[in-house]
Amino acid sequence: MLFSGRTPAFLSLSLSIASALGALYTDPSQLPKKKYDFIVVGSGAGGGVIGSRLSESPSANVLIIEAGLNVEGAVATEVPFLGPNLIGTPFDWNFTTTAQPGLGGRSIAYSRGFALGGSTSVNFMVYTRGSKDDYNRWAQVTGDWGWSWDALQPYFHKMEKLVASADNLSQAGKLCPEVHGKSGPLPVSLPGYSLVTDDLVIGATADLPHQFPFNEDMNSGNTIGIGWVQYTIGGGQRASSFTSYIQPALNRPNFDVLINTQVSKVYQTGTQKGLPIFRGVQFSQSANGPVFNLNATREVILSAGAVKTPQILLLSGIGSPSELKKHGIKTIVDNAHVGTNLQDHPLLSSAYTVNSTATFDAIGQNPALVGDLLNQWETSKTGEFVLGPANQLGWLRLPGNAEIFKTQHDPSAGSTSGHYELIFTDGFVSFAVPSPSTGNYFSLFTNVVSPSSRGSITLSSTSVFDSPNIDPGLLNSPFDIFTMREAIKAGKQFMTAKAFKGFILEPFGEFADAKTDAEIEAYARKFSTTVWHPTSSASMTSWSSTNGVLNPDLTVKCTVGLRVVDASAFPYVPAAHPQTAVYVLAERAADIIKGKHGY
Ligand SMILES: Cc1cc2nc3c(=O)[nH]c(=O)nc-3n(C[C@H](O)[C@H](O)[C@H](O)COP(=O)(O)OP(=O)(O)OC[C@H]3O[C@@H](n4cnc5c(N)ncnc54)[C@H](O)[C@@H]3O)c2cc1C
Ligand SMILES: *[C@@H]1O[C@H](CO)[C@@H](O)[C@H](O)[C@H]1NC(C)=O
Ligand SMILES: *[C@@H]1O[C@H](CO)[C@@H](O)[C@H](O)[C@H]1NC(C)=O
Ligand SMILES: *[C@@H]1O[C@H](CO)[C@@H](O)[C@H](O)[C@H]1NC(C)=O
Ligand SMILES: *[C@@H]1O[C@H](CO)[C@@H](O)[C@H](O)[C@H]1NC(C)=O
């Protein structure tokens, strides 16, 4: 966290209650007595797109039920720079993982957005599509070419609106405009404030072009190399599935959103050709509060995210009979894969001391500066507060002859996908240790982005108000720890580039002592956390495969009327920050659903 250990007073978030918008409800008993064609569970990247796109058709009545809070008026959800400060606030589910063997037995905090807009209202806004190979692998394992990179291009273009950065600097050489959409609902822009470190990082790619090539646009299909970060930021302000999809649609008479309400399960409303129909939704506002039931006339769409969607499926009797039996839940659909195959990206940040007084550290160390920057942001949407956590990052591959490939299969999707990611931040950022109260730093993030480890979501109780057991399996395979170690070595190598001379001083803290391979691995296990990228806990496979939870059209196997549209559906986590992949999956899903019902 940028201000770890301190929470400036302005962060006391103003939680507005029901707004003037007629279709936003905060109490289930206020819902109009109408028939909903579609009931969508969750308003994040998946649910926001689905609710908004389906309600484009005036004859489709759509309801989103969202567990979390309204974000309107909460300035910390609007100011890009304050994204990291939302961790551990009322907008966070505050999950915790099970003890992670790969992390030396530690349990770690596992943030998810408890908000209108889901995790897109609290995330760090990095906009990366993933690679051509990532999507082509989805297409291959599902047998549906519609999930391929080429087939999804119209959807990437439909959702994006490439806009100027907050400082209006030229985009030339920093991205390729032709690969981007220009008129979609989701603004995408380059960092809107220049940093001293910009020239150093880009300069280092010129110094070491063979190992660390510059990539002009990592969203063009080939992610490999280091370049400028693109963000879901427009006009210096966060864009989320709420601001881009839900809010602009709330004036539609056929679109309602109910917040502060948790769906506890979906229930069977009939049988069709021997298969259970799941069009019933049960929900309430607290563990002991009144319980409400509502049936959709066409479909229920689960978009509760990779942690809660499998929990809801399990609570609904869709899962492994032996697991369900432990909790006294009757199995309606026998599917042992619900909650398995969970994937995530391990994150590690390491800091260097620097020869500068102009890093982000000043902001955390000087409360007066925070007030000034917030004021500047509010009056002109300029200054450091328009920034996300880094202006440059990159995706890199292990060498083809790396020793690990003698014993381990390469889990990456192909040559356009990285094995690891490097992120460069002009200040001290750690999610494992508090920020030092003095000094100036440069943070190097090393993230494993094509992991071979798999985790799981399992029930801890029969109540949706309890967290399920979350085991992301971080650094829990020989490949993943090897890759983390080599990423750290590569990162150290990058920092030796001529461009950094006179700026980078020395490794800070325990990072300085991590020298041998064994020491680096021990350091990684001690301090790694998560990039908050859980996916694939209810994954799609081909129509004929029984080795998965969803069909390629995202319907739940062996059911009628029930679909999943969120990060749980991914067969594999892309080697990328995944919000873009969820948005694009949901854009295509909306078309599939409209097509099915003739809208
Ligand atoms: C701190 C953080 C930083 C991140 N940074 C980035 C980044 O920079 N770039 C990037 O690409 N990705 C980032 N991500 C990940 C990205 O935001 C997610 O991958 C994406 O939002 C997932 O979309 P989703 O629809 O699957 O789930 P979510 O967006 O999490 O939406 C799920 C929604 O369902 C709701 N819900 C859950 N259970 C219930 C229930 N029982 N009843 C009703 N509603 C329910 C939740 O409250 C939530 O609103 C970050 C995530 C976090 C937490
Ligand atoms: C998360 O923790 C914060 C800080 O303790 C708390 O204010 C907030 O209500 C918690 N979130 C939820 C969903 O309970
Ligand atoms: C950038 O351009 C927009 C639109 O022309 C303008 O409103 C804004 O003030 C400009 N910002 C800066 C920092 O020049
Ligand atoms: C939902 O459908 C089932 C089965 O048709 C019916 O028994 C139940 O009453 C319906 N519930 C509501 C709230 O309409
Ligand atoms: C720090 O930077 C100044 C110039 O900005 C330079 O003169 C000095 O040598 C640098 N110090 C170190 C230790 O590199």
UniProtKB/TrEMBL annotation:
Superkingdom of the organism of origin: Eukaryota
Record protein name field: Alcohol oxidase
